Amino acid sequence: MSYAADMSQSLWQRTRRTVRDDIAAAAMELILEQGFAATTMDEIAAQAGVSRRSLFRYFGTKEDVVLRTLANTGEAIAEAVHARPLSETPWEALLAVADGLETAPTWEPARELAIGRMCVETPALRARRAEKHQGWVELLVPEIAVRPASGPVGDAAAEAIVSAALACLDVATDRWVAADGESSLASFFSDAVRAVRG
Amino acid sequence: MSYAADMSQSLWQRTRRTVRDDIAAAAMELILEQGFAATTMDEIAAQAGVSRRSLFRYFGTKEDVVLRTLANTGEAIAEAVHARPLSETPWEALLAVADGLETAPTWEPARELAIGRMCVETPALRARRAEKHQGWVELLVPEIAVRPASGPVGDAAAEAIVSAALACLDVATDRWVAADGESSLASFFSDAVRAVRG
DNA sequence: GTCAGGCTGGCACTCAGTGCCAAGCTGGCA
DNA sequence: TGCCAGCTTGGCACTGAGTGCCAGCCTGAC
Fold this sequence. Notes:
Helix content of chain A: over 70%
Distance between the termini of chain A: 53 Å
Order of helices and strands of chain A: HHHHHHHHHHH
Oligomer: homodimer
Number of helices of chain A: 11
Structural class of chain A: mainly alpha
């Protein structure tokens, strides 16, 4: 069944966020079937029952249609780090947060796996994901900079730590996707961190 | 004076690499003047004295025109790591290689700074650079995986180490660019690594 | 001299993304 | 109830990146 039918009627009454979600759901249906590169924004617009122009108002780029959830994830991670006791070192806090990631209400393994697979096979998506991660850095730096380590941490050091941690997350995600979601993402993450910190 | 005049005559006789370099030089002249986003591939082609179509044969994307040197850098780094004694740990080798980076014959601080600045202000370029770095990972992993650490290293750990190191390099590059090339890139890199490995 | 293979430029096309404008909806106010 | 201001939508036209195709030209081998 198509999304076009029911969405064309009640679109205006819905809140913006709901519309976004509905469009994204319709888009994912198409993209998972045809692949990211082979799906055009015109097709997505048609499937979602909105005009091409409006589609670009909701999602600035085609990549954002797939990766829209990542911005929220960045804020969620920052909040989770914020919630950790200040006595924890940066890495203790980050590892603890990673452990809790998969139990968050917004965590849907199937969706994350699908996105992960798509990122592996579509460099443009991977690049865009990296950009999003870059955005997370500035969210996370203030949470990390205040934490204790060997010596005062500071912004420069915090930025290095956060960037390295996100690199570990990327590696862990790739491994997790390659393993088809077997085992937990957190375990791959802690493996990566352990390797890096020796 | 323009590149168009002298290049339109002798273009065919030149070797492919030279042509690439000449095109890139002409392009950089334009891009540094107008900015990356405001410069079109048509303008670059005209300035370089080649057709738009041929320009796309030499550089698959607009970003590649600016970042073309990075692929070589990846191989150069891999070779440099290969040349380090096998008794060195991954991080010892990587730090040593970073120290030597700026004395390499291909290292031109002015160009690197210009590229770095452009990457800061143009997300698309930054994303593309990240993609290139991703390509370096597979070059570097075999060089790192054979090195000693606390326990056997292996590919998974090596990938994490290399990715984290490249994240440190990115942070270091940003700082170095922000400092306008004052101090050495290597010192920023070792600062980052020290912060990460605490 | 000629023939095959590779490089070149031109043309037309697809598709992402943007600016502009007119039409419609909504909530507030008289 | 009627009107007005502001926001959203959709349609249109446009720019610019990137690609496929083809025809012409140059080069090197025989």
